[in-house]
Write a structure and sequence with these properties.
Blueprint (H helix, E strand, L loop, with lengths): L2 E5 L3 H13 L3 E5 L2 H10 L4 E4 L8 H10 L8 E5 L5 H9 L4 E4 L4 H14 L16 H54 L5 E6 L5 E4 L2 H6 L3 H6 L3 H4 L3 H10 L8 E8 L5 E12 L5 E10 L1 H19 L3 E6 L4 E4 L1 H7 L3 H4 L18 H10 L1 E9 L5 E12 L5 E10 L1 H47 L3 H29 L6 E3 L1 H15 L4 E7 L6 E3 L1 H17 L5 E12 L1 H6 L6 E10 L6 H4 L19 H11 L3 E7 L3 E9 L5 H9 L9 E5 L3 H13 L3 E5 L2 H10 L4 E7 L7 H11 L5 E5 L4 H9 L4 E4 L4 H13 L9
Parallel strand pairs: 1-2, 1-3, 3-4, 4-5, 17-19, 23-24, 23-25, 25-26, 26-27
Antiparallel strand pairs: 6-7, 6-10, 8-9, 9-10, 11-12, 11-15, 13-14, 14-15, 16-18, 19-20, 20-22, 21-22
Helix pairs in contact: 2-3, 5-6, 15-16, 16-21, 17-18, 18-21, 24-25
Length: 814
């Protein structure tokens, strides 16, 4: 495709040549004078130049001289196409300067094209000049080309027709574009005038409002013409609290990131919430020249969102766990009560499945019957078992309500959960107390009747002994007397556990009472049982019935013996103890005060978790038929309670059992109590203590006590949890207080793991089974300090203080 440079200062002439030549398959560049043409040609040499003569800056003759003087341009044909011809010398001068053609305006298009093609075919300088001095009116030029035009007319007619067709089609396309544009504008206005959203356009430079849709009248409450007349009207309507912020934000409209929510005040005083956006419209040079914006009235939606937020805030104040899930169990809402109950935050659970989160197993998920009732009646309630983030099991009273969409189809489920774990435990205790009361009432009646039956038998036996004729008769009577006495003793036990029968109350030395009983049991218990007695140097007296207290100790020792059929160790300790509020929180049956503490610990088979809640019930026994009545521990508990004391039982299957009896001291240890008040336990100084225990009540009481005395506390529910917590807070934790018997990972394994992470770690071990075996196991794991559970605040605070004050242990990694 050849390139033609057209030089003409008249735009219509240049445009005419451009259209004609481009239609003939050429590429056209235009210049307005000779200087501009030379500059363009020297940058990119054209294939042909067509130039006018009369032009500003540099005329055609000057351009021709420079053109033919340039070695790069002289080979390019130069045509003069001018309407300024008045003197025959102009053509002759042009030809003498090297013009390859001289054509007068106007000329028919086909003649001009024929001339251009001929010049292109001949090349520059091939047209003979007129004789020197010859007169010419231009007719010789036309005659020169006449033969060529005639020869090529027929062949070029089709090409010219095609060019005309293209020009006509271009005109038609332009007309169609204008019609389409007018139709688009009509549709835009129709759309803008029939939607609730406001649409506006303003000039970027002048800020003049060019268009505003009728929705302005509905939202702002003013006529559109008012906005055209006063473009600042919209800002004047802004709420005073939002005016500065929104006015400053308008500067961002030209950047396209204007997105604001604000309030306006209507002429009637009404307040509306508006959501507005704006963006720029740019020209071909990328410069903004229009600003287009929208404004939507979101008042109803905003008020609805505010109501929802208020309702959510109210739900967050509820003590119950409130959640919403869809029909696929995916959680959609999780209030603060749920965070407190389960331990997960809303961010952690929303979007997750409730089935795999709060239910311990698939068997705990309410089944098809619950779903069927929910879909049929719109609600369901029941009790289910859930688990917390820490792995604790909860008994939950749950209430489901079905939520439906606008079409009445089931959409989601609103759930309210109440933790009834403690309530059910109290209910069980209440029912147990009721059973005990019923059994006691029944036992009292039976005891009365049995005493009436046994009394004459025993009296008659004494009479019959004197009448016995031989040893055989006396043996029979002794058997009868023994059986009757056993029956009478059984009646006494029944009365003791049922009503806590009061006997004679005198000052009793518990150390002497236990020592006498230990002496007796050493002679009667199997040699395979190693019996250890550890009394304190000075133990206070208690007020009680010696016979009943003797029975208490005998029952505990016999149970310990029976738990060790293959032998073992039995340890009895006795000491003074002061129960403070911390201990009382860990043992609901206790009250603060001075006590004598008697512990009986064995290394026997232990008691399962299921049976630990039943061992104090009357007639419950794990022994075989004929080996026990099931009244031993129930009688023991009744006697201890009648003495205003309490019992603590701690047991691990396969490791043994420790039963501790607390009896109030005779003078309430006034000096000890004073010492507790005056001798304040040592305080911490912000040290971090990691408390590891699977019993929630122990964790709570220990945490509260330590925090009140200046420590910072982290907690873990078992050994594996403790390792994770220690790994995250290793630099903060100064000491670890851990139970030795826990699920998942016990205390011994935890100690080994922590010492592998930090050989110099300080660890205090605790256990409710304060036997030699427990102590040996803790020491073997590397623990230097051990406290027996339950411990008082003073005890644990003193041990913590002493352990932290001691030099770092020189433990080595195992």
């Amino acid at each position: 495709m050849s390139r033609v440079l057209v030089v003409d200062d008249q735009e219509e002439n240049a445009y005419y040549l451009r259209v004609l030549l481009e239609a003939d398959g050429r590429k056209v560049d235009t210049a307005r004078n000779g200087a501009e043409a030379l500059a363009m040609a020297r940058q990119a040499v054209p294939d042909l130049v067509i130039s006018d003569l009369l032009m500003p800056v540099m005329d055609g003759f000057t351009l021709l001289r420079h053109w033919k003087a340039d070695p790069r341009l002289r080979q390019v044909p130069f045509m003069v196409y001018t309407a300024t011809y008045s003197d025959p010398q102009d053509e002759r001068l042009a030809r003498s300067l090297g013009a390859d053609a001289f054509i007068l305006k106007p000329t028919e298009s086909y003649e001009l094209l024929a001339c251009i093609r001929d010049v292109e075919a001949r090349g520059p300088g091939l047209l003979p000049s007129d004789p020197e001095g010859a007169e010419s009116d231009g007719s010789d030029v036309l005659r020169y080309y006449s033969d060529t035009l005639i020869r090529k007319l027929e062949t070029k007619t089709l090409e010219l027709a095609e060019a005309n067709r293209i020009l006509r089609q271009d005109a038609i396309d332009r007309e169609l574009s204008e019609v389409s544009l007018r139709e688009s504008e009509r549709r835009f206005r129709q759309l803008a005038e029939n939607i609730n959203e406001l649409f506006w356009v303003r000039d970027h430079a002048t800020h003049e409002v060019l268009y505003v849709s009728p929705a302005f009248e509905t939202i702002w409450g003013r006529k559109c013409q008012e906005f055209y007349d006063s473009p600042t009207l919209w800002s004047e309507a802004l709420h005073p609290d939002d005016r500065d912020r929104v006015t400053q934000a308008t500067a961002r409209q030209v950047a396209g990131d204007y997105n604001e929510v604000f309030r306006i005040v209507r002429p009637d005083g009404g307040i509306r919430w508006i959501h507005s956006k704006a963006f720029p419209v740019r020209n071909e040079q990328g410069e903004p020249y229009r600003i287009v914006g929208t404004a939507e009235d979101i008042t109803e939606r905003h008020l609805a969102e505010e109501r929802i937020a208020e309702q959510a805030a109210l739900l967050d104040h509820a003590q119950d766990a409130i959640l919403v899930r869809d029909l696929d169990h995916r959680l959609l809402y999780w209030n603060k009560g749920a965070e407190r109950m389960y331990g997960w935050t809303a961010a952690e659970v929303v979007g997750r499945s409730a089935s795999g989160l709060i239910y311990k197993g698939h068997s705990d998920v309410p089944g098809e019957a619950a779903t069927e009732q929910l879909l049929k009646q719109g609600r369901w309630n029941g009790e289910v078992r859930h688990v917390t983030k820490a792995g604790a099991e909860l008994l939950v009273e749950t209430r489901w309500s079905l939520l439906r969409d606008d079409r009445g189809e089931p959409k989601s489920i609103f759930i309210s959960n109440t933790d009834v774990t403690e309530r059910r435990r109290m209910d069980r205790q209440f029912l147990r107390a009721q059973r005990m009361e019923s059994v006691g009432t029944l036992a009292a009646g039976i005891a009365h009747d049995l005493n009436n039956v046994l009394s004459p038998i025993l009296m008659s036996v004494e009479l019959l002994k004197d009448l016995a004729r031989d040893d055989r008769d006396r043996t029979t009577l002794e058997i009868l007397e023994t059986s009757a006495l056993r029956g009478a003793d059984l009646v006494k036990q029944v009365l003791a556990f049922s009503r806590g029968v009061e006997g004679a109350r005198i000052a009793v030395d518990p150390t002497r009472l236990v020592a006498d009983l230990i002496k007796l049991t050493r002679d009667t218990f199997p040699r395979s049982i190693h019996l250890i007695f550890n009394p304190s140097e000075k133990v206070s007296q208690v007020i009680g019935d010696p016979t009943q207290l003797h029975q208490v100790m005998l029952n505990l020792l016999v149970n310990a013996r029976d738990a060790m059929p293959r032998g073992g160790s039995l340890t009895v300790t006795i000491e003074d103890a002061f129960v403070d509020d911390t201990y009382a929180a860990m043992n609901p049956d206790s009250v603060a005060g001075a006590y004598v503490k008697i512990s009986v610990a064995d290394s026997g088979s232990g008691i399962s978790a299921e049976n630990r809640t039943k061992v104090f019930e009357p007639f419950f026994t794990t022994k075989g038929i004929g080996e026990g009545t099931g009244l031993g521990l129930s009688t023991t508990l009744a006697i201890v309670r009648s003495h205003r004391g309490f019992i603590n039982l701690y047991s691990e299957v396969g490791k043994g059992t420790c039963v501790t009896v607390y009896l109030p001291s005779s003078h309430q240890l006034a000096t000890a109590a004073d010492a507790e008040v005056s001798d304040t336990p040592p305080r911490g100084h912000g040290e971090t203590v990691l408390v590891v225990d699977d019993e929630e009540s122990v964790r709570y009481a220990a945490t509260r006590t330590l925090e009140e005395f200046g420590y910072r506390v982290l907690v873990a529910v078992h050994g594996a949890d403790a390792v994770s917590v220690y790994a995250r807070h290793k630099a903060e934790i100064a000491i670890v207080l851990t139970d030795m018997a826990m699920p998942v990972m016990d205390g011994a394994a935890l100690v080994v793991a922590l010492m592998a992470m930090n050989p110099s770690i300080r660890i205090i071990a605790s256990s409710g089974l304060a036997s030699e075996a427990s102590l040996a196991k803790a020491m073997a794991a590397g623990v230097k300090h051990f406290v027996a559970k339950p411990y008082t605040a003073k005890t644990i605070l003193t041990v913590l203080h002493e352990t932290l004050a001691a030099p770092f242990p020189a433990n080595k990694p195992r």
